[in-house]
């Protein structure tokens, strides 16, 4: 069932969340501050990600920013709730957005509408797929600021682009153009800025049209493969197949193939 008729929109001052046509859109909404993230925003982003992941109507999660930036990192100004001592025992890292992103089963797409830096870059890299505006940039500027990528970058980057390139980027903190990001494999597509969101939405719609249980199982299996040997992984894939064979979506997928028509999946 499409959610077009029940477009759910929840708004705060700094994060916007909406669901329509099986796509949950989370928008960072501090354009006057380059969408830098305050401490309340960390909680809101994680809450919306969990909400989307548990909502049966949501099949794809899309993350983007308002204005000219995707996200320039954490807001380190006074009053933001973030600064020296933030990453201490009072912050539950298990609930940090990049950690939540890694563990949720719904596919995630970043519409990288503008430049990102630091935590904002890690937030983008935490998504499964990235579509980047042609004039935007990524800046892994951690060591330039005297810190390390605390939000998953040291795990994600070597797996995306290999050890040598990852260490070069992290050690130098060098800013990358969209073309360089595409060449390195950090993003899937580079498009004009005014087409970035539409391109991400079109890809999200294409994914949402497929069997959601199978898509989520495939993501789980790919995530598990990072820490399994081949034989264990194949066994776990087989265990994932057993419930899928019993699903309505499997029956619909087979029926639509035989009847040469588009499938109508229910997520059951």
What does this structure look like?
Helices cover 41% and strands 17% of the residues. By secondary structure, the protein is an alpha/beta fold. The strands form two sheets. Strands 1-2-3-4-6-8-11 form a seven-stranded mixed sheet, with helices on both faces. It has a four-stranded mixed sheet with strand order 5-7-9-10. Helix 1 (39-54) packs parallel to helix 2, helix 4 (153-161) crosses helix 5 and helix 8 (212-225) packs antiparallel against helix 9 (230-245). The chain is globular. The N and C termini lie close together (12 Å).
Summarize this entry quickly.
The protein is α/β, with parallel strands linked by helices. It is built from ten helices and eleven strands.
């Amino acid at each position: 069932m499409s959610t077009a008729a029940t477009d759910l929109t929840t708004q705060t001052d700094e994060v916007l969340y909406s669901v329509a046509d099986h796509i949950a859109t989370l928008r960072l909404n501090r354009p006057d501050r380059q969408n830098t993230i305050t401490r309340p925003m960390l909680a809101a982003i994680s809450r919306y990600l969990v909400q989307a992941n548990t909502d049966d109507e949501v099949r794809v999660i899309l993350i983007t920013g308002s204005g000219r930036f995707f996200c320039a990192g954490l807001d380190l100004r006074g009053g933001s709730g973030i600064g020296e001592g933030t990453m201490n025992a009072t912050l539950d890292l298990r609930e940090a957005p990049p950690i939540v992103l890694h563990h949720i089963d719904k596919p995630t797409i970043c519409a990288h509408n503008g430049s990102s830096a630091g935590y904002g870059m890690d937030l983008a890299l935490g998504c499964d797929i990235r579509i980047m505006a042609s004039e935007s940039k990524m800046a892994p500027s951690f060591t330039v600021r005297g810190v390390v990528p605390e939000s998953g970058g040291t795990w994600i980057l070597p797996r995306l682009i290999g050890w040598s390139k990852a260490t070069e980027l992290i050690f130098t903190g060098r800013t990358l153009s969209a073309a360089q990001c595409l060449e390195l494999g950090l993003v899937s597509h580079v498009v004009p800025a005014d087409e970035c969101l539409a391109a991400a939405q079109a890809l999200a719609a294409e994914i949402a049209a497929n069997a959601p249980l199978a898509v989520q199982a495939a993501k789980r299996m790919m995530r598990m493969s990072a820490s399994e040997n081949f034989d264990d992984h194949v066994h776990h894939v087989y265990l994932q197949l057993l419930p899928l064979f019993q699903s309505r979506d499997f029956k619909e997928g087979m029926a639509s193939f035989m009847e040469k028509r588009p499938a109508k999946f229910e997520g059951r």
